Amino acid sequence: MLALDYEDAGGDPENARPGGHDFFFFFISGEEPDEEPEPPKKRHSRSASPKAPVAPSSPPDSAPLTPFGQSGPVKAVERPQRAAQTPQTPSGASPLIMDAVQRLSRVHKRTGRASDKSIEQFTGIAALFVEITGVDDVRAVRQHHIAAFVDAMDRLPPTYRRSAAERDKPIAAIIAEAEATGAETGLSAATVNRNLIQLGKVFKGAQSEGIRVDPSVNPSLLRRFEKKNAKDDRDPFTPDDVKRIFAAPVWTGAKSAKRRRDPGEIVVKDWLYWVPLIAAYTGARREEICGLETADIDEEDGVPVIIVRPNARRGLKNAQSQRRIPIHSHLIDLGFLDYVREQRMKDRTNLFHDLNRKSPKSQIGDSTAYLWRNIQNDMLGPQAKKSFHSFRHYAVQGLRAESDVEKHVRAELFGHLVGDIEDDRYGGRAPITALRAAVEALPRVF
Fold this sequence. Notes:
Blueprint: H1 97-111, H2 116-133, H3 143-155, H4 171-181, H5 189-208, H6 239-245, H7 249-252, H8 271-282, H9 286-290, E1 297-300, E2 303-308, E3 323-326, H10 329-333, H11 336-345, H12 369-380, H13 390-400, H14 407-414, H15 421-426, H16 432-440
């Protein structure tokens, strides 16, 4: 994780010198957890409300802490609204937090550095900070406001605002109810850290525009360190698990197209048939597979490949996630390339056209979750630490056991950084023949 450094400068915000209008972007570096990002929270409006207009927060250090920074009962408070008059700065850029976020988001969008979903998540995090602290002017933010933000995240239920009943409920009321009922509270360390990093981008972006930000404000000082090892988040499927999974009726014969869990003689080669097989033979993430387009299946030097890249359906986790993966010979034998040709002949852009998001905020792969969990339970029994993502761990561990597959080749196949600056920055792409040999080292699943 990247620790953000802040300018070692002081002074009155009103005396800040005009700055340029370039934007700086800061990204997480190093190893990152592989699980898919959780859906963004509800976006909060910045429009003025006749109920409780709030003037711009004043910059002095004596700004009072909200109830979130205190112990004891939490009082419900009105969500802060955008000021009627936008404060002026020497640079001419609005110092309101949500305005700064909007400007950053436009540049992220224009430069292709963020998808609509990640921009919505970024906006939701900033809105949550404004709601919790009551501070809507970036010049007024102090370190104790960041601490109050983290304190509130520790007291929020992990599923806050997921239900229709909570979508418009103030955060203070949600926390109060959780404490009164003894509900589970506390966002995960990964979520807290992600929110702090996104908040830091707002402050750096404002600084780059010539808006004075208190130099002592440093969200990274409050980042969390998980006690458990990242390797313990998910258990891999064992080779025996994989054999048992693909002995399910989906691949051996089902009762009918609608009764895929019951044994029979029907094999339907749709998303349910192909997506788990691709995961076992590529180690790709669920969303990377489910969001493939027919144009993402191509050929390089005569080798059929899956091209993992951003497309109209979904973005990617990070820059190194963009890669090409040779298609395993078993997938070809089973007719995967025929399936791709059929989708193209039907003028279908999406490879798995019958997989769609349940809602604008959900992921494409969420549509697979219920049926997949039932199939996994049918074949392996309930195992809380194994999920679809366990295919990725299975493939990674399988290739690590192959001494002939070099580390940089494995990293390129799975979209990882090697961890060596010489390889990560200056190393060339592995030849397609080396990548194909690595993929073929994964054993056939049936």
